[in-house]
Amino acid sequence: MSYLVEGACQCGQVSYKLHQPPKMVLACHCIECQKLSTAPFSVTAIVASEDIEISGELKEWSRLAESGNKNYAKFCPDCGNRVYHYNPDDQSTLKLKLKASSPDDHSVFEPSAHVWVSEKQDWYQIPEGVKVFEKQP
């Protein structure tokens, strides 16, 4: 049985095909993700780089995380949608942090854990039975 989830940025210039399920899906409540998503948290699917095909031109932006890790973001130069993040120094896993967008099957990107809840919006209630981490696990 084949696995395929497709997504794209808002304007469609950048698209992806995910050929394997994410290794993990996280809802991040850090202030930076709140800014990124203009929402109380952002959803990130951890995927192996060999499990995804990305089409279209991407631009890059980077910052240092609180931990000192590098956080590089790839985004569509036309509409500005983030497509994925990665740490260029993390060669152990070669994983991408996919900013899941426009999936055909929304359940694929349901978070199994919430991270950085120390910066969570007070009014948001995390669903029962989901793992919770004060910062990065």
Task: Supply database-style keywords.
137 residues, mainly beta, Metal Binding Protein, Guanine Nucleotide Exchange Factor, Chain A, 5% helix, 36% strand, globular
Task: Provide an overview of this structure.
This protein is mainly β and 137 residues long. The chain has one domain: Metal Binding Protein, Guanine Nucleotide Exchange Factor, Chain A (Beta Complex). 5% of the residues lie in helices and 36% in strands. It has one helix and eleven strands. An eight-stranded mixed β-sheet has the order 6-7-8-9-4-3-10-11. The longest helix has 7 residues. The mean pLDDT is 87.
Number of domains: 1
In percent terms, what proportion of residues is strand? 35-45%
**Portion of residues within helices:** under 10%
- Read across the widest sheet, the strand sequence of neighbours is 6-7-8-9-4-3-10-11
